[in-house]
């Protein structure tokens, strides 16, 4: 029996024609590329992926759970999610618009609004008015994205995304808060872990902190998070720290000492070693890279 290989889907895989935002943001009005990538084999996404079905019918498997898609269905997936379109379940007129957003691109502001209810998957059918709001956000971002030579294009897209996602979060909350009681025990555990992570990753980097808050052993929490997300608790913490640190280094004059204090490290030296181990260069080298 041939084993399935899990590939990783990066933002850049959906954004081959754009150098400026290649690794950070992609938006498309065709679903052919993402279907083509995921129809042959399961793919693990390494970004936030938001999809809006505008017509037709399809089916996507998300972490082994099949989800039907039809007009006005909205799905938002967090990094680490494994997806695959089901080829036999896609109608000829199926159309999905999507955005792919890197963690680093949004880490300059409160990223939790881009991870609805701190859950790994958000999936709901928007009503007519909600659908208009979501599509207005999408069209607004697409217009700015296509303005390739625009001054401050990157920053404009970031701030448009931020303001729009506040509206998106409110819509999502109207739907998914009603489903919280239907989560399995494991799903609720992962959900609660993400909530803690968003609040504390800057200051709490020990797995035991999260385990104690969830009334679990460190070993059990580590096992569940690894099984459900493909990453360990520490990998999630360090990924968020590195992403935010990169954004701060590139977008401000923050010193390494200030970074160390911000992320609760003892001193600039210890933070510098941590950063270099995971990025391959020092913070100052990255600033001028």
From TrEMBL:
InterPro entries: Homeodomain-like_sf (IPR009057), HTH-like (IPR037923), HTH_AraC (IPR018060). GO terms for molecular function: DNA-binding transcription factor activity; sequence-specific DNA binding. Residues 191-289 form the HTH araC/xylS-type domain. This is Putative AraC family Bacterial regulatory helix-turn-helix protein. It comes from the Bacteria. SMART domains: HTH_ARAC. Keywords: DNA-binding, Transcription, Transcription regulation. Coiled coil: none annotated. It holds the Pfam family HTH_18. SUPFAM superfamilies: Homeodomain-like (SSF46689), Regulatory protein AraC (SSF51215).
